[in-house]
């Protein structure tokens, strides 16, 4: 199930080439991921309070077209793999007004125990919510 | 006692006006403040591990001249007030190659107890190190 | 006339004190300012394409209460002064769910000529739109 | 030829997990790339003034170990491919004090014409300087 969330490009997101700096899309993948969890009924804050972290271990992005100041973007987040220890997502970031795909990407995240920093097995109460979304 | 630290402008610090985005100088005041503490023999990490935080309560900045990509900057941090509960600093950010002052600023920080979030009285072991620097 | 715009705190906006890093509010004042212009019928992009820049010359902020990851914020922008050469704004950033004011601030911006970098006199087609909003 | 540059982790680089936010390493790859060009005798600013841009088209990163506030990092940049139209780099970011590799990565950049945005063929005066470094 694809989850979409909108994000408007701020002036501070641009760089001296007058386009969005490429590092920002990596941040916006995170916005997509957080929104995906929320759609599944999980807030990242809750998960953390419950002793789990969801750090990223791998990211890749292809920059196809630039975004500009004030562009309204659509961040699409698509789950591609889920186990109790990890979860992977694909992303597409499009410009709303012309539908052009600007950036595609992929991340791999793992569930870890906040106290130990080690890989954790996600409890069913969370896992079941995510499984439905795949 | 003025403490100086250098910082080079990165491409990602610029915006679509091809100058450094103004919010970055606020971050660079923090670099200056952290360096000031270090010069006094205190690392912010130690202070935090010891149960104290040093949050900012007030900031102001005047933007006099723009900085550009690749400029080598000098961040000067000057203590202007110190009690066991709070500390204030003035800042000057200059471009090294021409000595032009780009930004001046001021911050007020307080010492708080990490556990309670309330204003703390800084122990003498830290306070004495800071007092010498005034 | 106060212009309000919402902004949700992203995970990447937080710092190791688990609160929003103070530099982000300076960025969010910019979101408020851009939205204010839009409400007046002016987009910053248009203004720039027309040869004018709107750089900040002065900022101040008071940090009253911390914001946390996932907080929905309201950025209020209130014009306080306008001439053909400059414009000043006050800001209030509140948390939506409890209405608590987190940060207040003030900025002074000037209108400059993009080609020369010098202070410009804003043409009436823009000035009149802003004057109505005061 | 590997080019190394140091970078200290600032407090504003951390997130609420008390580690460096993963998006920052993507920015630090850029610091490495700019330093690589400089070592080759090319400043990115010059290149841009001369009508060329060097946008990124592809990035990937593996996050192996977290960096913390105040860590001194070493960014290693290794060229892996060069034509007159594009250049690829590998990166390794290590913590200086223990030599642990924190992040590895790869980017692909292209040379474009600033005026047209199209892929350009890099003039020999630049290309020759880069070729020596491979």
Topology overview:
4 copies of one chain form a homotetramer.
Chain A: E1 3-8, H1 23-39, H2 44-49, E2 52-53, E3 56-63, E4 72-82, E5 86-95, E6 101-110, E7 112-113, H3 124-131
Antiparallel strand pairs in A: 1-4, 2-7, 3-6, 4-5, 5-6
What characteristics describe this protein?
134 residues; Thiol Ester Dehydrase, Chain A; homotetramer; five-stranded antiparallel sheet; 23% helix
Helix tally of chain A equals 3
- The total number of structural domains of chain A is 1
Strand order of the largest sheet of chain A: 1-4-5-6-3
Count of individual beta strands of chain A: 7
- Mind telling me which CATH architecture of chain A this is? Roll
Low-confidence stretches of chain A: none
CATH topology of chain A: Thiol Ester Dehydrase, Chain A
Structural class of chain A: alpha+beta
Spatial extent as radius of gyration of chain A = 16 Å
The CATH homologous superfamily of chain A is called Hotdog Thioesterase
Q: Kindly report the greatest chain-chain contact and the residue count on each side.
A: A-D, 21 and 21 residues
Characterize the overall form of chain A: elongated
Report, as a whole number of angstroms, the end-to-end distance of chain A. Answer: 6 Å
CATH class of chain A: Alpha Beta
Tell me about the largest β-sheet of chain A.
5 strands, antiparallel
Describe this structure in words.
The first copy, chain A, is α+β, with helices and mostly antiparallel strands and 134 residues long. The first copy, chain A, has a single domain (3-131), classed as Hotdog Thioesterase (Thiol Ester Dehydrase, Chain A). Helix content of chain A is 23%, strand content 37%. Chain A has 3 helices and 7 strands. In chain A, the strands form 2 sheets. A 5-stranded antiparallel β-sheet of chain A has the order 1-4-5-6-3, covered by helices on one side. A two-stranded antiparallel sheet of chain A has the order 2-7. In chain A, a hairpin with a 5-residue loop joins strand 5 and strand 6 (101-110). The termini of chain A are close together. The relative contact order of chain A is 0.23. Chains in contact: A-B, A-C, A-D, B-C, B-D, C-D. Strand 3 of chain A pairs antiparallel with strand 3 (56-63) of chain D.
């Amino acid at each position: 199930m694809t989850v979409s969330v909108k994000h408007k490009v701020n002036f501070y997101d641009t760089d001296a080439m007058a386009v969005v700096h490429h590092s920002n899309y990596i941040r916006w993948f995170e916005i997509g991921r957080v929104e995906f969890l929320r759609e599944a009924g999980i807030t990242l804050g809750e998960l953390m309070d419950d002793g789990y972290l969801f750090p990223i271990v791998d990211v890749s992005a292809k920059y196809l077209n630039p975004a500009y100041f004030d562009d309204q973007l659509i961040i699409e987040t698509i789950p591609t793999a889920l186990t109790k220890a990890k979860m992977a997502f694909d992303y597409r970031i499009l410009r709303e007004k012309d539908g052009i795909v600007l950036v595609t990407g992929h991340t791999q995240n793992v569930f870890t125990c906040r106290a130990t920093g080690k890989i954790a097995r996600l409890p069913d109460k969370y896992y079941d919510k995510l499984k439905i979304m795949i």
